[in-house]
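Hey, quick one: can you model this chain's 3D structure?
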Amino acid sequence: QVQLVESGGGLVQPGGSLRLSCAVSGISISQYGMGWYRQARGKQRELVALMSSGGSTNSADSVKGRFTISRDNAKNTLYLQMNSLKPEDTAVYYCNVFVARQYWGQGTQVTVSS
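Sure thing. Here's the predicted structure for all 114 residues.
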C-alpha cells in the first residue's frame, strides 16, 4: 500500500521560506518519478515541480528560481524548498506518485500573507 504524508505547511510572510516534506511508504522513491502539485481555492490543481527516478528535475515557470524539489532516498522522503514566497503561492500542496495509478497525499496548506 502506497502512502504519502505531507507536512511543513503554514502561514508565512511574503518573501519568507518554507520546506515541505512528503514521507512515503510502500515504495522506494528512488525508483519512481514524483511531483509536487498545488491547488489554490477555486482553481484547478497545477504542477509545481517534478523529479524523475534518475534525479532530474523540472518546475513550473511561476516557481523557477524560487522552489527546489529534492529527495532523501535513505529517509524515503520528497522535499519542496520554497523561497521568496509570494501571496499567489497560497494553496494546498500535494505530493504525487504514479504506481499503476495516481497516489496523492492529504495535502498541506501554505498561506503567504502579511
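One thing worth noting: The mean pLDDT is 97.
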